[in-house]
Amino acid sequence: MYIHFVHTGFVGTKFWLGQHLKIEVRNREHNPPHVHAMAKGAEAVINLLTLEVEHHDGFNKATLKLIVEWITENRKILLEAWNYEQDRED
In the prediction, which pLDDT does 46 show? Predict the structure, then answer.
């Protein structure tokens, strides 16, 4: 799965995978470092340190597996985005 678009804005950094799946690193979030995956009303929260799905609603197991695989492959850049977003002062 490829990154379609990356956007850093007021509420965080967004990675678009294809046209419908968004991985979001929000600013001023609680620990542990995590991302939000969203698509068509589905959402999951994935811990960037353990790669565990902390919460999900609406994703099937196959899609969750693909999301976690992508996050695993891109964990370094996601952790960099996490640190950037937590240190930001808007």
Answer: 98
Residue ranges in 1-90 assigned as alpha helix (H): 61-73, 75-87
Q: How many helices (H) and strands (E) does the chain have?
A: 2, 6
pTM of the model: 0.87
Domain, as residue range, for 61: 5-87
Phi, psi of 76 (to 5 degrees): -60, -50
Q: Pick from 32, 10, 20: which is nearest to 78 by CA?
A: 32
Look up residue 55 and give its two tokens.
């919460």
Q: How far apart are CA 80 and CA 40, in angstroms?
A: 27
ω before 33 within 30° of 0 (cis)? no
CB 12 within 8 A of CB 38: no
Number of domains in the chain: 1
